[in-house]
Design a protein that fits this description.
Residues 146-169 form the Glucose-methanol-choline oxidoreductase N-terminal domain. By secondary structure, this protein is an alpha+beta fold. Helix content is 26%, strand content 20%. Bound molecules: flavin-N7 protonated-adenine dinucleotide.
Length: 545
């Protein structure tokens, strides 16, 4: 467990928390706490002063700061704890040979790249299981999310980017940017374990040849590139390359989890939170309803599922303080359902509104034969093409890996575009499900912006797009999925300026649903920093005796 991080980086509380996670995993508990024996009792905690729904970035920050304030906190997470090796000795399966651990209750993987040379060689049949990556399908948009203790941190590319200050201020006009950039962004980066690649190693290693080729083409176009920090331990990565540490980023691992090197939340915020002794995490428990008791406390209904997905228990929980960290989809769904079914009828009309994809579009370019990108590619992106300052066509394009283990001459990108389109969720009373109003027309602007930038790059380098990566229809721009769902309970609209849900005291949102659809860079540092800001304010003002 600790091989992923150097010992000096671990605090005593993190070591205690990791021990709790390890004990729970070894004994097969779905309830995790420092006192595992107590946490393992069936009904050890059904009321708690504070409950946190979800264990991604927003949930993890809430849990840690509540626990450090001495408030006993229960975290309810619908995914499983990813800490037990499978029959192959690994916790996570690889992207090249996915098995049941890869995806959330699917019989076939649904990777972002559907095809290669138009061939259906990427996706594979798997067994149904609470795997780590989910792709949630709406009518005209699908959303990738992480499932498990650590949420999106388990499956993401680790890019830890602080947004340009001017754009942050544009998106959050009521938030004090001095305070964010002086206090909360640095606090978030430190707790997340953000680090940067050694530039000398980057320039010399075969593992980032694909990035250097894309940089060369961007520079030839007159575009600026920038190094991007990451939470993957670059010291570990250098040892992987040297053959002295087990390979993870250099073994194609990322969207189905990293077995080594990644400082996911279970190794940072959540480990420290568990180490306080004030936090218990229940896994495989999905909250489906929120209501309010006559005394103003909150009542939650949660279904516990087994590894086949069967509901084995339905539980009620009570709490005084309720923190929603289910992510943009999870939190918005819970609040929308509560408003529309009348269990929290006074929620603002703006709950469900202001949702966007962070302008995500994925695309590939075909390089000349002499511009080899290398069979060996690290899965952790470290550079972006930064044309955000171009006010007419804002794009920040992450230079993404395509680690097939073979030379393929593809330059792949995840473009974050300044698409101002927003959509709303609605609640279908018949099915009890939420619908998303995002359409292909909303995505069209993202595609136009990405096309404008990459047409320039292709023109300057005499290259063309790849037509074979996103299905048999020769689609060039993958505009029908997002990695960055944002909004639905936007800060200052559905909540006050600190994430307090309007109309309901002691109910808070701490996750990506607060961000109004776009933040211009990869979002988890912003989500973490905003959650830090909310928790500082709430603990100072709302929880005093
Ligand atoms: P999130 O991390 O999604 O956590 C929500 C948690 O709540 C999950 O564990 C859910 O299982 C759980 N949950 C939801 N509903 C319920 C319920 N009803 N009951 C119990 N539990 C529930 O939310 N961002 C970056 O900044 N850099 C990257 O490099 C990057 N790469 C990405 C790559 C991929 C493949 C994906 C999918 C995402 C990537 N992201 C990246 C996005 C990032 O992971 C995402 O913005 C954050 O994880 C969102 O954090 P939240 O706290 O909002």
């Amino acid at each position: 467990m600790t091989s992923n991080l150097t010992q000096r980086q671990l605090t005593r509380r993190q070591i205690l928390g990791m021990a709790a996670l390890q004990t729970a995993a070894t004994l097969g508990f779905t309830r995790i706490g420092l006192d595992s024996a107590r946490a393992a009792q069936p009904d050890a905690v059904d009321t708690a002063p504070a409950i946190v729904i979800g264990s991604g970035y927003g949930g993890a920050v809430a849990a840690l700061r509540l626990a450090q304030a001495g408030i006993r906190t229960l975290v309810l997470e619908m995914g499983r704890l990813w800490n037990t090796p499978g029959p192959d000795g690994k916790i996570f399966c690889s992207t090249r040979t996915p098995d049941q651990r890869s995806m959330w209750f699917r019989t076939r993987t649904e990777a972002p790249l559907g095809t290669f040379l138009w061939l259906d060689v990427v996706n594979q049949d798997i067994g149904r299981y609470p795997g780590v990556l989910d792709r949630v399908h709406f009518a005209q948009m699908s959303v990738y999310v992480g499932r498990g203790v650590g949420g999106g941190s388990l499956v993401n590319g680790g890019m830890a980017v602080t947004p340009p200050r001017a754009y942050f201020a544009e998106q959050f006009p009521t938030v004090d940017a001095d305070e964010m950039y002086g206090t909360y962004f640095p606090r978030a980066r430190a707790a997340l374990g953000v680090n940067t690649v050694d530039p000398a190693w980057f320039e010399s290693t075969e593992w980032y040849r694909f990035t250097r080729v894309s940089r060369k083409h961007a520079e030839k176009t007159g575009l600026r590139t920038t190094f991007v920090p990451n939470v993957y331990d670059f010291g570990h990565m250098a040892r992987e390359a040297a053959g002295t540490a087990p390979k993870s980023a250099l073994a194609g691992e990322v969207i189905y989890g990293n077995n080594h090197g990644k400082r996911s939340l279970d190794k940072t915020y959540l480990a420290t939170a568990l180490g306080t002794g004030h936090v218990t995490i229940h896994t495989l428990e999905k909250v489906r309803a929120i209501s309010r008791a006559p005394d103003g406390s909150y009542v939650l209904t949660a279904d516990r599922v087994d590894e086949t997905g069967r509901v084995v228990e339905t539980k009620e929980y009570g709490c005084t303080y309720l923190f929603l960290g289910g992510g943009s989809l999870g939190t918005t769904e819970l609040l929308l359902r509560a408003r529309e079914t009348g269990t929290l009828p006074d929620l603002a009309p703006s709950v469900g509104a202001g949702w966007g994809t962070n302008g995500n579009v994925m695309l590939g370019r075909a390089n000349h034969l002499w511009d080899t990108v290398g069979a060996n590619q690290s899965t952790m992106p470290v550079m972006g093409i930064d044309d955000w300052a171009n006010a007419d066509n804002r794009v920040f394009a992450e230079i993404a890996p395509l680690p097939t283990g073979l030379e393929h001459w593809v330059s792949l990108y995840l473009a974050i575009t300044g698409n101002p389109e927003r959509a709303s969720f609605s609640y279908d009373t018949g099915s009890g499900e939420v619908r998303l109003g995002w359409t292909a027309a909303h995505s069209a602007l993202s595609v136009a912006m990405a096309r404008k930038l990459f047409d320039r790059i292709n023109a300057a380098n005499s290259t063309i797009y790849r037509y074979d990566l996103f299905g048999s229809s020769s689609k060039v721009f993958a505009d029908d999925f997002t990695y960055h769902p944002l909004g639905g309970c936007v800060l200052g609209r559905a909540t006050d300026d600190y994430g307090r849900v309007k109309g309901y005291p002691r109910l808070y949102v701490t996750d990506g649903s607060l961000v109004p659809g776009s933040i211009g860079v990869n979002p988890f540092v912003t989500i973490t920093a905003l959650a830090e800001r909310t928790m500082a304010r709430v603990l100072a003002e709302d929880t005093a005796p």
